[in-house]
């Protein structure tokens, strides 16, 4: 069994699409009038970006405490490269620069109120 997709809810679909395409390596399948978009990563995983207005709400979407999505990188340099690119984006908030976290190396940032983790896979043998 494979994970097919994850649906995230955001206020600004176009900004989310830009983030995931330009910084996290996704490609766009469809953007439906900036209200909902479907992106793809490596032809085997889809990310559905659902605009808050489709929920008939105007407020920023809320996520439970500690809810986040994460993306593993091949090495520490890849983590640093993404961090350096992302920190130029005005709308993102960072907890810290890349560092040792738990049993891995990485960092967290927020797009709107969605926490995203960029790190090494702590369950594989990696050089840190």
Automatic annotation (TrEMBL):
It comes from Epilithonimonas mollis. Keywords: Dioxygenase, Oxidoreductase. GO terms for molecular function: dioxygenase activity. InterPro entries: Fosfomycin_Res_Enzymes, Glyas_Bleomycin-R_OHBP_Dase, Glyas_Fos-R_dOase_dom. Coiled coil: none annotated. Residues 3-113 form the Glyoxalase/fosfomycin resistance/dioxygenase domain. SUPFAM superfamilies: Glyoxalase/Bleomycin resistance protein/Dihydroxybiphenyl dioxygenase. The keyword Lipid biosynthesis does not apply. This is Glyoxalase/Bleomycin resistance protein/Dioxygenase superfamily protein.
